[in-house]
Every structure is written in structure tokens, then in C-alpha cells.
Design brief:
The complex is a heterodimer of chains A (251) and B (287). With 251 residues, chain A is of the alpha/beta class. Helix content of chain A is 36%, strand content 26%. Chain B has a single domain, classed as MetI-like (MetI-like fold, Orthogonal Bundle), CATH 1.10.3720.10.
């Protein structure tokens, strides 16, 4: 099943920074799709288009078509609040909200109007277990979220997205600020979550891309150079630029 | 040929730092001096009677209670108008307003409002509130006048405090499906609250100490009882100081300094509260 269908998507920021040019890409449900390539290639921009977080940025122009479950994502009248509850995102640096651990996880549900304490607590526990963080924090749920380590904070950020039971999880270089052990934990989590979720990741290096991908999409300066299943794109890339990047000739 | 240096780089640095330290100390001296001087001259006048009795014998005896309570009323009255309005305006400008001509106009207006001499506010308040709206010389008119004067301080500190909250919190909150207002209410405002409160208190502190804005709008020369309603005029500490220093012959100098001391403690007390709020918040801050 196709979760996102992106057709001829182009995007420019007002300051002309990172942008996308004519991107065509289909993102399958219940798989890990990896967007990789050197910095400035448009990976973050694409991720932030998929849950309309780019509405907060200074976008000058968008053209093309993006469908999410066959709904037009770029429709200005789209209910973006509802969309963001279905399409969650984890950022490169863990940014816990200035609240307790528990409140961080229940935040999305509370903003969606859930007030029942028992249901909130159950959701918090479930999300923290799913993010493999429960055992480490169950006895200090009401401590400030900044009191835990960076690796734990990033799993907390994943947990608060999971608490909303989204369909899609976007991750923008989720392990770039983490040590190898924490990175391995996050990667294992992502692989385990694909049964229930559609996952789109922009990893911060090509090795990670190859480790976790079901599908890979290579971006270079705003263009999608090549797209394919993991073995194909990482072992026998068709485009010379993809091959050069994977072999470390540039980037 | 090598030039002869008087000091090496390290010595120069030490010299520079000490010079800066000395200059900083110079700015502290006048404040410290004024406070000590007023405490020394004013303390003998302070007594229970001075703080709780009404003035007698043409204000040459008795206490200054009506002026203390009057200043309290004016401060609270000013807070009632300027805090909701100023904080709301600050939120609008920092979080909602688009960067367009209208916003720039509002910003310029606020900056200019802050630069207007207080006596101009006094005359303006007299014209608008006392005469045009026929509120009369009253606590209400004086509070409204002081509110206009205080607004720019509250608006700009609110705006600044909101802008100091990292933008990543807004992005994260939005990404979790929060509306703009939910983000502001649950995340941004609580983080900005200490800064906003500091601005509010500093603004009110200035209002409490002003004479000119209340001169024509609400201050009574001599009113040896408490005002009964918002529409009554009131005595107030700053104006009382002006009166007893220039208008009453044979005024004991002690009472003048005593009254100044009370106003100073009132204002410094508010300042202290602001400082405490700020330092406690800084200790708890998570970014």
C-alpha cells in the first residue's frame, strides 16, 4: 500500500536556502524508507512537508502534488492539526518540552482533548514501553524531562510521538547527537516498529541508511537522484552519483 | 629595532579589567549613597504613628497613612488596566503579528510611547479621562493615565520574554498536534512568565513613583481620610513629597525624609520581589 505519493514536488524558501526540485517518490506503508544524501539535499524539507511543519518556515513557493492516504496534503484548507497527529516527527536534537517526563509523553493526547487521567497514564506507559524507555524511567515519571540522558531524551521524543498512535513516524537525523549504544537502541526500535508504522528516516550517514532501510532514496541538491529497494540502491546503484556517494567519494 | 613596551599583554589585560571594574563601581556609588543618605535622614521620622495616622496640623504632624494607601490603590489600579492589556499586546506582537507595515507601526508607537515625558501623560490623561470622559479627578482617572505610561514597558518586556523562549519548543509542540494558542498557553507563556512578571513589576514600580501623571488626574493635596471609591481623589506618596517639600512652610525636614524613605522602601521592595522571581526562575530554567 502507498502511504505517500509525491508527484513533481518543488519547494523554495524565501531565503533560497535548501529546496526541492521536481521530486517524484512513493512511500510504502509499513516499511522504512530512508532519505539519504549529503547535507542540503532537501531531506529535511521533504520530511517537514509530509506533516506540514513547513507551514512554520518561510516557504516562498510550493508546486506539485503530495497525497497522504489519497488526501491532498498541500490543500491550504487541510486540517493540519489532525494531520500532525497522524504523521509524527522526531528531530535530530532531542528537545524535551519543559515539562515532566510523563507530561512530555501525554502532551499530544492532552492537546487532542484527552482528559481522563487513567487513559493518559495507560497511554504514557504503553508509549514508553514501545520506545524501550519504561524500565529506565518508570520510577521518576514526574521528574523534569531534562533530567535524563540525551539518548533517553531521544527515546522520550519517540515515545511522545508514539503516544498519539500515528500512522507515520518521520525522523530527521534522529541519532546525530547520540552515542553508538543509544544509536543502536533507536535503530533496533525503528526496525521493530515497522509492523505497525510507516517510517521515513533521514539518517545522518550512509552506513545507517544501509542498515535500516527497506527502501532508499538518494537526494542531491534538492533532486531525487535514485530510488529503490535496499539491496538494489545500496549494492547495485544505477546512477554514477549514487554510487560515488555510497562509496564515499564525496559527501 | 625593538620598541620598548611599558606593559606586556597580560599586564595590559589585568589593567583593563581593573579599570572596567572601577568604572562599574562608580555607577553603583550614587545609588548606594542616595539610599544610605535617605535611610539615615528618614529613619528618625519612622514610627507606628507615622505609618498609620492621618496628617495633622497642616501635615506638619501626624502620619502619612492616606498617602501610603493611596499609592497602593494607584499601583493596583494601574496593574488592573495595564497588565492584561500589556501582556495581551505583547503576546500578539511576539507570537501572532505578521511582519508587515501595521506591526512596524505598532512597534514604533510603543517605542515612542516609552519616550514621552510623564507630564505629557498627565495632561493627556487630564484632557481625556478627567474632562472628556468626565471621570473627574479620581483614582480611576489617575490609574488609567498611569496605565498608558506603563503599557510600553509591559508590552516590550512581554515581547522580549516570549522571544527568548527557544523556537524549538514551538516547533515540537506544533509537531505534536498542538494549536498555536495551546503552544503559547501550555509551553511558551509558563517559560516566559518570570520575564513578564519582572517587566510588570518594573513598570508598576515606575508608576508608583511618578508625580506628574497623577498631578492633574487624581492626586489630592490634602485629604486626611481614605478614598471611599474609585471616583474619589486620593493622596499619594510622590505628590505628597512634592507638596510637603515646596508648598508647606515650616515643614519639619524629618517628615520630608521620612516620607521619601517610605516611598523608596515601597519601590525597592517591588524591585526586590522582581529580582527574587527572576533568580528563582533562572535556577529552575531547563534550557
Amino acid at each position: 500500500m502507498d502511504k505517500f505519493v509525491i508527484e513533481n514536488l518543488s519547494l523554495t524558501y524565501s531565503d533560497g536556502a535548501e529546496s526541492l526540485r521536481g521530486v517524484n517518490l512513493t512511500i510504502r506503508a509499513n516499511a522504512v524508507t530512508v532519505l539519504f544524501g549529503p547535507a542540503g539535499g532537501g531531506k529535511s524539507t521533504l520530511l517537514r512537508t509530509l506533516n506540514r511543519l513547513n507551514d512554520l518556515a518561510d516557504v516562498a513557493e510550493v508546486s506539485g502534488k503530495v497525497l497522504f492516504n489519497d488526501i491532498d496534503l498541500l490543500n491550504p484548507r487541510l486540517d493540519v492539526i489532525a494531520l500532525r497527529r497522524k504523521v509524527g516527527i522526531v528531530f535530530s536534537r532531542p528537545v524535551p518540552l519543559p515539562l515532566t517526563i510523563r507530561q512530555n509523553v501525554s502532551y499530544g493526547l492532552e492537546m487532542a482533548g484527552e482528559r481522563n487521567k487513567a487513559r493518559l497514564n495507560a497511554a504514557v506507559e504503553q508509549a514508553l514501553r514501545l520506545a524501550a524507555l519504561w524500565d529506565e524511567v518508570y520510577d521518576r515519571l514526574d521528574a523534569p524531562a531534562t533530567a535524563i540522558s540525551g539518548g533517553q531524551q531521544q527515546r522520550l521524543c519517540l515515545a511522545r510521538v508514539l503516544a498519539l498512535e500515528p500512522e507515520v513516524i518521520l525522523l530527521d537525523e534522529p541519532t546525530s547527537a547520540l552515542d553508538p549504544i543509544s544509536t543502536a537502541k533507536i535503530e533496533a526500535l525503528l526496525m521493530a516498529l515497522t509492523d505497525q508504522y510507516t517510517i521515513v528516516v533521514a539518517p545522518h550517514n550512509v552506513q545507517q541508511a544501509a542498515r535500516i532501510a527497506d527502501f532508499g532514496a538518494f537526494f542531491l541538491q534538492g533532486e531525487l537522484v535514485e530510488f529503490g529497494v535496499r539491496d538494489k540502491i545500496f549494492l547495485t546503484p544505477q546512477d554514477k552519483r549514487t554510487q560515488d556517494y555510497i562509496e564515499g567519494r564525496f559527501g | 629595532m625593538k620598541s620598548v613596551r611599558l606593559f606586556n599583554a597580560r599586564q595590559k589585560q589585568v589593567l583593563g579589567f581593573n579599570l572596567l571594574r572601577l568604572l562599574s563601581l562608580v555607577t553603583v556609588l550614587p545609588i548606594l549613597g542616595a539610599v544610605i543618605y535617605i535611610f539615615v535622614r528618614g529613619m528618625p521620622a519612622i514610627s507606628w504613628e507615622f505609618l498609620t495616622a492621618v496628617p495633622r496640623s497642616g501635615m506638619r504632624e501626624g502620619g502619612i497613612m492616606p498617602a501610603i494607601i493611596g499609592t497602593l490603590y494607584l499601583t493596583l489600579g494601574t496593574a488592573a488596566f495595564s497588565v492584561p492589556l500589556g501582556v495581551a499586546a505583547g503576546i500578539y506582537i511576539a507570537e501572532y503579528a505578521a511582519d508587515n507595515a501595521l506591526t512596524r507601526l505598532i512597534r514604533v508607537a510603543i517605542i515612542n510611547l516609552a519616550g514621552i515625558p510623564s507630564v505629557v501623560y498627565g495632561l493627556f490623561g487630564f484632557g481625556i479621562f478627567v474632562l472628556f470622559l468626565q471621570i473627574g479627578t479620581s483614582i480611576l482617572a489617575a490609574s488609567l493615565t498611569l496605565s498608558i505610561m506603563t503599557l510600553p514597558v509591559i508590552i516590550s518586556t512581554t515581547e522580549e520574554a516570549l522571544r527568548a523562549v527557544p523556537n524549538s519548543f514551538r516547533v515540537v509542540s506544533t509537531s505534536l498536534g498542538a494549536t498555536r494558542w495551546q503552544t503559547i498557553w501550555r509551553i511558551i507563556l509558563p517559560q516566559a512568565m518570570p520575564g513578564i512578571l519582572t517587566g510588570v513589576i518594573l513598570g508598576l514600580e515606575r508608576a508608583a513613583g511618578e508625580t506628574a501623571p497623577i498631578l492633574f488626574t487624581g492626586a489630592a493635596f490634602f485629604l486626611p481620610r481614605l478614598p471611599g471609591s474609585l471616583l474619589d481623589a486620593t493622596m499619594a506618596l510622590p505628590y505628597h513629597i512634592f507638596v510637603i517639600s515646596t508648598q508647606v512652610p515650616g515643614m519639619p525636614i524629618q517628615i520630608q525624609y521620612g516620607t521619601v524613605l517610605v516611598l523608596l522602601v515601597f519601590v525597592l521592595g517591588m524591585n526586590l520581589i522582581a529580582t527574587l522571581i527572576r533568580s528563582r526562575a533562572r535556577a529552575r530554567r531547563q534550557w
